[in-house]
Write a structure and sequence with these properties.
Largest sheet: none
Order of helices and strands: HHH
Number of helices: 3
Shape: elongated
Radius of gyration: 17 Å
Strand content: under 5%
Structural class: mainly alpha
Helix content: over 70%
């Protein structure tokens, strides 16, 4: 049983990683809005996201996005550990 993962540790780590990626994405959009839209347009194959996106990002939306990304990452990390510890 020594190989079990610690749910809190993994969840916190993944939450921080998700928030970090969200912050990098926001910075990318702020500094290079056109390039960012082109980049993300390529990720969503066949969907023109330029019609539904905005290139200006407010400080408040960045903070809310960081919180949401952390919470989402935390939940995914916690579920990952629970499932991993059951099936390992």
């Amino acid at each position: 049983m020594a190989d079990k993962l610690n749910a809190k540790r993994v969840a916190n780590t993944l939450g921080i990683v998700f928030a970090g990626v969200s912050l990098l994405c926001a910075i990318f959009v702020l500094i290079f809005p056109g390039t960012a839209m082109s980049f993300f347009n390529n990720i969503f194959h066949g969907i023109d996201i330029t019609q539904i996106t905005k290139t200006s990002v407010s400080f408040g939306s960045i903070i809310i996005g960081l919180i949401e990304a952390f919470v989402l990452g935390w939940i995914i990390g916690w579920f990952f550990v629970k499932i991993y510890n059951i099936i390992k």
